[in-house]
Design goal:
This protein has 347 residues and is α/β, with parallel strands linked by helices. It is 39% helix and 15% strand. The protein has 16 helices and ten strands. The strands form two sheets. It has a five-stranded mixed β-sheet. The longest helix is centred in the last third of the chain and has 20 residues. The two termini are 37 Å apart. The N terminus is likely disordered.
Length: 347
């Protein structure tokens, strides 16, 4: 399922990106060029690679671009649109971009496991929008009620959120069916469950099948992964601390305005960058982000947009290491830093 536009049967970004860390960590380890060049007006030029084609899930960054939030802070920001052939860690390693987006906590922790000197410096989604989707059934009240049902999962998800689901609910691998980003198998079996993204698959299923699916947001039941993180190589962050702080502050302003204000200027830039995107998809996605506190809920309501906490990262590492995804002696604190966040960082 393509959750970036209206085409129902194409690749999902998480399947493409899940293995990105290991493939390029060696190159990142050797990345030492941290110089940034000002433009003709003296603004610091920063290239920021997103994790997929332009969409509402990137709206705050496009809003900061459209409103001049970056420019007012002395930055000349170029958003490099992602896609199925774009590997964000590889772009960072080759100095093709200064900053990149991390889709979930697995991306960052994988880089730590491979020894890559890169950290998450902000997390603009306090809740990972990963969901499980079921047919309408009054007996289904929580994720726990999905035990024993066939669950359609992409290969990339087996070593990702499926690890948490098994640890939390006792789900078993014999429930797994292969998800090929085609909703037909789900629609054909009323007992089937499939993975999805809060802002995409439920909307598409409603349009295609004409019913309102049952949607379970993993984050609402304790799934600890962050999403839409800003990744920065350690050398770049060290040598360009002021520019990095300005980028994060401007992005926070952009996300605040996109969620709480009028997102039309950002949407126009998104549709310009990604002509396959439609306004109805943007509208419903933005509303889902707002209604579910994806950006400004949780710790962000207390400490500001983009915040991260040591408690959340520890919780993520504990459940994944106990499941054997990461060695128990991995220095998980190397996955993040809060020192560049606006105000007083935590952790």
């Amino acid at each position: 399922m393509d959750r970036r536009g209206n085409r129902p049967f194409t690749l999902d970004r998480r399947a493409v990106l899940a293995g990105a860390g290991a493939a390029t960590a060696a190159a990142l380890a050797g990345c030492a060029d941290s110089a940034v060049e000002p433009d003709a007006d003296g603004r610091i030029r920063l290239r920021f690679a997103t994790d997929w084609r332009a969409q509402a899930e990137h709206g705050g960054f496009y809003q900061a671009l459209a409103s001049g939030a970056y420019e007012r802070r002395g930055l000349n920001v170029e958003i490099i649109q992602g896609g199925p052939g774009v590997n964000v860690p590889q772009l960072l390693a080759s100095n093709a971009v200064e900053l990149g987006m991390g889709s979930n906590s697995f991306i960052t922790m994988n880089l730590v496991a491979e020894g890559a000197p890169v950290k998450a410096v902000a997390a603009f989604f306090q809740k990972d929008p990963q969901v499980l989707i079921a047919h309408p059934d009054p007996s289904l009240e929580s994720i726990a009620d999905l035990a024993g049902r066939p669950i359609l999962l992409a290969d990339a998800s087996i070593d990702a959120f499926w690890v948490w689901l098994k640890a939390r609910y006792g789900f078993t691998d014999d429930q797994v069916r292969k998800y090929t980003f085609n909703v037909a198998p789900f629609l054909a079996d009323p007992r089937a469950v499939q993975q999805g993204y809060l802002t995409s698959e439920p909307y598409t299923i409603r349009k295609v099948a004409g019913f309102e699916p049952k949607v379970f947001l993993l984050a609402d039941e304790g799934y600890p992964s962050y999403a839409t993180m800003v990744l920065a190589p350690n050398a770049f962050a060290r040598d360009n601390a002021g520019a990095l702080r300005s980028f994060i502050a401007a992005s926070a302003e952009g996300w605040r305005d996109y969620i709480q204000g009028d997102g039309k200027a950002a949407d126009a830039l998104i549709r310009q960058a990604n002509p396959e995107m439609t306004q109805d998809v943007l509208d419903q996605a933005r509303e889902k982000l707002k209604a579910n506190g994806i950006v400004d809920g949780g710790d962000a309501a207390l400490y500001g947009l983009g915040t991260m906490t040591e408690e959340r990262w520890r919780a993520f590492f504990e459940v994944t290491s106990e499941a054997g995804v990461y060695p128990p002696n991995l220095d998980w604190r190397q996955a993040f830093t809060t020192q560049y966040l606006p105000g007083r960082g935590r952790g």
